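Work package 3, deliverable 3.1, input record:
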Amino acid sequence: MNRIDALIVAVATTLLAACSTPMPSGAELDKLTQDILARSFRAEGQAKLERISPDEDNRLCAESDQTGVALDAKVAQAIEARNMATIQPPKDGKFLGDWKQGEAIAQSGAGKTWTDKEGSVNGGNCYNCHQISQEELSYGTLGPSLYNYGKLRGVANPNSVESKPIVEYTWGKLHNARAYNACSNMPRFGHKGILTEVQIQHVMALLLDPASPVNK
Amino acid sequence: MSDPMRIRAQAAGGNATIRVLMSHEMESGQRKDGNGKIIPAWHIQDVTASLNGKPVMTAEWGPAVSKNPFLQFTIKGAKAGDKVAITWKDNRGESRTDEAAVT
Amino acid sequence: MSCLNSQATAMMCPRGMTARIQIALTVTLFAWAGAAMAQKSSADSIAEYRTMLQDGNPADLFEAKGEDLWKQKRGPKNASLEQCDLGKGPGVVKGAWVELPRYFADTGRVQDMESRLLTCMQTLQGFNAEALAKTPFGKDEQNNVTAIATWISAESKGMTFNLSQSHVEERKMYEVGKRLFYLRGGSHDFACATCHAQDDKRIRLQDLPNLTKQPGAANGFGAWPAYRVSNGQMWGMQLRLNDCYRQQRFPYPLFGSEATIALGVYMGVNGKGGDATAPAIKR
Amino acid sequence: MHTRRETLRHSAVVAGLLASTGLFPQYAQAFDKVAFDAKTIAEAVKAMGGAAPVESKDVTITGPDIAENGAVVPLGVSTWLPNVKRVLLLVEKNPAPLVAMFNLSPDIEAIFTTRSKMGQSSDVYAVAITHDGKAFFAKKEVKVTLGGCGG
């Protein structure tokens, strides 16, 4: 045994003596995290305990985020396919509502917390992460700027055939962003029942209506 | 009973800068409680300051002054060791006086 | 005098001003001179607003109250907290906060500042720690816990974070905290990491510290307890995390729960070497 | 540069705000401080004669351009005019515009800083009232933004 080995053994022995239990494995730590989660929260208002039992999509993305290991391409595709299947076109066939109401929805961060009344009107939280109209200075930068969203994409008439692909994509993105990006940080507004179909139509108008301040 | 004020009085260049923090709700009278009832206004109305017992400043405040108010002002000629006393009175008739030495 | 200051502009020295007034005005007018400059970005304006708030943080009021409470004989046993062991031995307050959360042999748990205070309030003063943990924020003894935590943190102001990872329980809590940090859930699929795992991002106008590394971890973790301007309340880390989880649309984390303590370990260890700025003033 | 029309409007606004405090009978005239046209402003200011508030470079108001939170907006007033009896801080669009009034004495400087609540973006005014009842003012616009997640 050379000196360094001896030192390592000595240190290891000391550490073992100080901490009778060795460090658990990754799987054991995953289990411990689940146990601690179960002991650390209580239901409050509409925020029930089921909200800390993530679905498979979230479990996979969280693991990838935490370990820094990108999802296998096939796994990512499967997540996107699953979420794509949830997207419903508007029942009345109308993709765009009223941009003014869309602006109010984009401004509001209300809804779904334990202090919100169940069934109260939810907001879209949009300005928390995105620049949208130029007038609102208080916008977040977690998501890309949506200023001139329709204009930059050449949407002169949202009802035209040329605009159809971008209109449908935007509808899908608002309904369920994970259909296009497996681990997107954007909430699944339609799929998770955060915004109603009518509300999504209004936000669509905010982004795509040439009359909206977003496209001025 | 109200909590004490925090008074910092620092001498510089022949004057003393006084910084005061007061512990007070400063309820504006504009807000409603959970049942939609107006929460009555409750705020500091009068503030007075004295240097070594001699009044040097009076102020009248409205309900718009922020909760846990901050006030900064400057007393001429005050030097280290001088005593600065601040008194506030609110619209419920409560009052409080605290004192600090200029450092 | 102030006119020679490198930050000063000609605007700070209007005619007729006496030298004496100039001195007194320096602090106040610094911001004013800034305001007079043309074409400032909104980010600059917000930074200026925050600077204006720094002088005169109402957290001072809570700090003073906390120190009083620490020394006061209170509770069923009519005792003070002066013999409380925050990790550096009974009664040692200075420097305690920058090493919390840590493992405590007497309780066999990793504890943060607030949960440790409950232990001391029970063992020394005879309060019921479980009942204190269940008391809503902002009510009764919870206010006192916050005030005491404010004072304890202030006693470490300017020191650098140095959390221990020598005990296996401390290392386990770091790993659990990391997993919790990335856990996506709630109606909106949010994790702590959604907002706090990148550099130079903001929500609305608020800068979001990247809590996974320095300097973000110490900037974020090291600022609480902080005075919240928006509601005029003093918030400890337990309430800070509670409201994060509320906005994440998660269920309600229990006061002093293992989950919130594990997150404290994760952030605190990530912030090693960073400055403790608490008690801060926040929007 | 202020146009004359703007200057008159500000003067009238200040007079109206002073009147609203109930502390200054000389301003307690029938002011509708909202709907002015230039003609009525001019007439209103003329009617006040020497008492019309005058914008002055010798009065300063300090405050942020943008307040991240309307609950706490740092505001300061200072003046080096002679013969000043009291100084006031006013927020035009607050339900009660008068934030604070400080009475001067020979023992203090005419420099005060405090913090105000603001319900919305507004002009804020610092006003100095002299012993002979004249009013001099400075004005600043403060934008109030919505901060945080808003949830």
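Chain D touches chain C through 28 residues (CB under 8 Å).
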